[in-house]
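INTERNAL AUDIT FORM
Audit reference: QA-55
Scope: verify that the stored structure record matches its stored sequence.
Auditor: D.O.
Record contents follow.
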Amino acid sequence: MFKRIIFILILLPPVVIYAGGNQEASSGDQKGGGAVSESIVLDGSFSLEVTDSAGKVISLDSPPVRVVSLGPNITETVYALGKGHLLVGRSDWCNYPPEVESISPVGDIQSPSVETILSLGPDLILASSHAPMEELDLLTNAGVASAVFYGPQEFTGAYEVLRGVAGLLGAQERGEEIISEMSGKAGRVEEKVSGMVRKPSVYFVVGFGEGGDWTAGGGTFINEMITMAGGLNIAGDVDGWSYSLEKLIEKDPEIILINNGLGDIFSSAPFYSDLTAVKEGHVYEVDENVIVRQGPRLAEGLEILNNVFTSYVE
């Protein structure tokens, strides 16, 4: 369970990570960063410059044709842009869409195998939150371009990731189409929320049990999504991801959200089984990947949250 918690936190944009009780500020740009790209084709020549979220300028003299993704949200973005055929490698944690299973794994997000990546002959590495900077430096020194994209802790942070990846892959038009689709879905959710008679109290389970209680506190884009979808996050008044069982019991939320397959385990565990949401059958299993990954499916996650909240209060 604790390994799963760390996995989820690594997927999220850099803010504050809690591990073993120690608080460490991320070295990344807390505001994230959008990419600015210029593509020039003159007399058959090609030139592309993109500034990634870390402020690094990536220069390419030819369109990338062999790409390695080191982030699940990045992989989802590449496919959503219609560029999945460019992928030759992906992290062990990339599992969507299903076609990605046929792409060679190169290791986990924080410590991928440089040797495996180089053996695939890539011309571009794309990484996201908590990128393995030492490995990326080694790959850069070996002549492979690399870029890191993550957005700020906001729902619209996914737009910056989309624009950054789209800029490097020559898919700007499709990127803007996806952003428009996501914005439209968010607008429709906002309209539904305006008609809600009340907003239920909500607790989003990231982790529970012996590894401690973990959730999305204030300042996270998941907290923002819960609010946008018409819920009241009981952990909105704390920072980061660590929570206490005592606070959970005290606030006793009306709705509990948890990843697929974990609802029964949570509901039957000591202390959690006494929560009102458990007793009244309001523990809802959701696919957490559409909520915790800052990618093109984030608007789908927003719709799922809204459907749960509106069905509860109706």
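Auditor finding: record pair retrieved intact. Residues 172-194 form the longest helix (23 residues).
Action required: none
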